[in-house]
Amino acid sequence: MGSLLETVLATQSEGGKTTFMQLLEMLTLRLRKPPIGISEYFEYGIWHGSITPALRDEFIGWRQSSRLDKELNDDYSRILANDKLLNYLLLNVNGFPIPAPVATYTAGGRRIGGEIVLQTHDEVRTFLNGDVYPFYVKPISAGYGHGVLCVTGREGDSFRLFDGRLIGLEEFMAPFAFLPYGGMLFQKPLTAHPEIADLTGTSAVSCVRFICFVTSAGPVIHTAFWKITTGNNMLDNFSHGDYGNCLGAIDIETGSVKRVISRMGVGGQVDRHPTTQKPLLGLKLPDWENALELVRSASKHFPGLRLQNWDVAFCPQGPVLLELNTESELAVPQAISGRGLMDQRLRKILADIARDKAAYRAAVARHDAVF
């Protein structure tokens, strides 16, 4: 309890509500269905004095986030996002920009297009002896950056990574033996758009996550946030600030950065890039309109996924679709923006989708009654 009171008191200097009001709100939200937990109350900034009761009720917790994913995404369609080879194959066939595949490793010899096909560990080792560097390698079925490496070169029996680390062959090959990954994919590295590289001080990409809802009237991009790479990190993953990267809320209409955090919760808000100290607020991301159109166009090809989460890399050649995700944490954008996700716009989107699903079920029922 002491720790909770310390946290409550720590918010007072940042415009927090009174201790009594915070405790009352925490209890109200915890008893709500679906609930919002105490840690979420602080992580999302609900404690701030600017959050009125109406704004407070727009926040959702991880339970509601999980429920929305289950309600909106058909189980049989998830493989089209979670299996990167299938996802890239569909995108590639339809002419969408993706990271160029260099080689694929699967026991069955799967591939996206004309890349090298590797089916055994010996073939992977032979491939690694060639002129194939630099490259990214990632699991075919995984998320949150698990198993992803950016390899810049070979040094004897070891591999030099983008972040400067040196790993041995045995460590490099370990993910290839992990069956749940379903194989590994080698890709040519993407590089950040010059304007972004200048700001972050690195060529590593900083993707924008677009949260897109697919209705019968077409895709609607509701929320976007920027995963800002810092230091010598080779990935833009945030993981509650554990990697040192930042997250920025983006205005959908303009592509401008509205608010940035370096960690969840009290005191996490920042105005400048931690590495370069260049200002982040107000920055307009390049090729924004092209990125919006790219996501809208691509999302139409996955109708069974009504809640889509696209990671888009902003590169010199234009926006590139890095990957499509399901089962994302919808609550995270709330910590970045300081506002709840369940606003009137999203309520209308969900009502439209519910109406579409009801019409579909009614059509099936009428068909079954006739036949």
Task: Give the helix/strand layout.
Blueprint: H1 2-11, H2 19-31, H3 38-43, H4 53-56, H5 62-72, H6 79-82, H7 84-93, E1 101-105, E2 116-118, H8 121-128, E3 135-139, E4 149-155, E5 158-161, E6 166-168, H9 169-173, E7 184-187, H10 194-200, E8 208-215, E9 218-228, E10 246-250, E11 257-261, E12 269-270, H11 288-299, E13 307-315, E14 318-325, H12 332-337, H13 344-370
Parallel strand pairs: 1-2
Antiparallel strand pairs: 1-7, 3-4, 3-7, 4-5, 5-6, 8-9, 8-13, 9-10, 10-11, 11-12, 13-14
Q: In the CATH scheme, what's the topology name of the largest domain?
A: D-amino Acid Aminotransferase, Chain A, domain 1
N-C termini distance: 63 Å
Strand content: 15-25%
How would you sum up the global shape?
Answer: globular
Regions with pLDDT < 50 over 5+ consecutive residues?
none
Could you estimate the helical fraction of the residues in percent? 25-40%
Class by helix and strand content? alpha+beta
Keywords, please?
371 residues, alpha+beta, D-amino Acid Aminotransferase, Chain A, domain 1, 3 domains, seven-stranded mixed sheet, seven-stranded antiparallel sheet, 14 strands, 33% helix, globular
